[in-house]
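Entry 12.
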Amino acid sequence: MVSEYQQQIVITGAGVVSPVGVGIEAFAESLAQGRSGVRMIQSFDPTPLPVRIAGEVVDFEPKAYVRPRKSLKVMSRDMQFAVASARMAADQAGWAPETFDPQRVGVVMGADRIRTEFDEIVAGFAPAIRDGRFDYERYSREGIMAGYPLTFLKNLPNMLACHISIAHDARGPNNTVNHAEVSSLLAVAEAASVIQRGMADAMLCGGASSRLHPLDWARSCLMDELSHRTDAPEQAPRPFDAQRDGQVRGEGAAVVTLETRRHAEARGAKILAHIAGWGSACTPPANGQPNGEAVKIAVRKALDAAKLKPQDVGHVNAHGDSTLAGDRVEAQALAEVLPGVPVTALKSYFGNLLAGGGAVELVGSLVALAQGAVPPTRNFEQPDPQCPIEVVRDRWLPSDRPTAVLVNQTPFGQAVALVLVAEP
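Predicted 3D structure (tokens):
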């Protein structure tokens, strides 16, 4: 009879590609130094646009992680981030063919919308332009044929999980979650559920996003609540601060390796933490106004599943996207369900990474649990009376409670919470 303890879902590896570092060591060092990854956009010329700052990944070399390299021809930037993060997570977990049954290993990834690259758009559209006008019939005859034939494969969100499964011969359950900011934590929860249901021994899971595309950026400038602190990029993301003026968008990815404790111990793997519980909910905004009900429901479900009380929690890794209403409703929800628990918001370091954000923040909590301390929220200078929570600020806060609750939410009323517990 396998005990409940042996069936715990544990994390044995983690990989990250982020604006504050590629790899766990670089990422942890940036958190330790309070280093920001928000900067002027470099991947395209943002001069004509009102917002020109982002959490952009720099010094990333996909050829160091993608095998075979020719696969890069059919990989978007999101996919490259995902494959690199999975490679790191598998390496840290001690991934070896003889230790895993490929039929019992799966992949679940959170993914975002993926735009077509400009040169590929032009290749297909140019033949259809005549006398300055777009000819639909000519496009259907000549334009489609002139485009790169594998472009579609670079734009499908499910290809993140597909590339990872091919790279690691993971032939088990394979799935994709596409729910904006809650995508990657939902993917981790679903991967844990797959193992819990006995459908796999191990899973690679997380999320990735790269929306630093000129078309996406122009749309965000028009429709999203973005910070306009272009003159001081590092000071722009300021979760729960009274002077916040909107979110900073970014790009990045993270993947973790999940296993049952029994499977991990049988192969001598080092366990980083275990996932004690999770919960999710959706309460759509009423009259266009967000509310925190989904956050409260998700957190309560996660705590119930983990058999924990609020006083058992060492820190909350909050969504904290620096939007006026979003931070307010989240903070008020957290104050009700996790009163007095210290709160950190890692988007203050690298911005809102959308479908990749939750997984990257999970890696941040792994770092915090390993350190036995909670990283401070950058740029938290003036408390907002409408955000009645204990925001960690200025310096790392020592903690003797090795438990973290991670929270993500979307503007559409979705929320997810996940409970991490460090190893004794």
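Annotation: The domain at 9-114+156-422 is CATH 3.40.47.10 (Peroxisomal Thiolase; Chain A, domain 1). The chain is about 30% helix and 20% strand.
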